[in-house]
Amino acid sequence: MGRPPTPSTGGPGFRFTQEEVAEMESLLRHLNNGIPDGSLIQSLADRFTASAARAGKVGVWSKQVIARVSPFWWGIRSLMSLILTRRSGPGLVNRKYSQRSRNSTKMLPAASGDHKSAFARSSVQKSVKNSLEGGQLEFEAKSVRDGAWYDVAAFLSHRLSQSGELEVWVRFSGFGARDDEWIDVRTCVRQRSHPCVSTECAAVLPGDQILCFQEGKHQALYFDAHVLDAQKRRHDARGCRCRFLVCYDHDDSEEIVPLRKMCRRPETDYRLEILHAAGAANAAKEAVVDSVIA
């Protein structure tokens, strides 16, 4: 198992090959979109590293496979949800969606102190304590070893540090006991970020704090970032074609990324309510117009 070395600057970036991506997608379909266990993920990483296509190149680490599998898992579910929604009624046709996205973006407010206070650190600490007692909230934790964020499989124990801060012994999803860590709850544990669905791009605005998949020279992991700019584009059969300029918090590097590499913070959920309400209102108006025309 283990963890890859910290990223260095310069040189070619790490990328999965098309064959590797196809194999991971095939595996997920075989598992009915379930998350593979640790031994299967490790065998994939070992096989990719030993392949002829990677001769003389940077090897593949198990945690890179885990990070890449997770977006696929959510992406397939989101795609199926989108297809079912389109089949169930009008209002999500591409040519109509583009105009609604522009209109909805104008009415989506930036995150305010009131909304952020709902997810204050003290609330997270209480939620973690409840989770230790059998709660159902999903969390992510920031690894002390590499500064990347991972889904939490379980909180195994807790203690107070010498400074009096609450710490939890974390088991990361897809990893074994050798990768468990003591994590500071106040600064490195939070409610799980939400993978962005293609219909939600209008809810991602400049200034937003996000979790973003960064593909570096030696590793490809999820790091905190913030959105600098958003370039809205018309959607097509492949889904969202918008592009976002982001700045990673850990190294101040900037990159233009597609929506599929980004995860929203729960603090922006209220925007989706506004977006969905606007969509429902527009769909109702279109239905009335269609009935009048008919």
Automatic annotation (TrEMBL):
Pfam families: SAWADEE (PF16719). Residues 136-263 form the SAWADEE domain. InterPro entries: SAWADEE_dom, SHH1/2. GO terms for molecular function: chromatin binding. This is SAWADEE domain-containing protein.
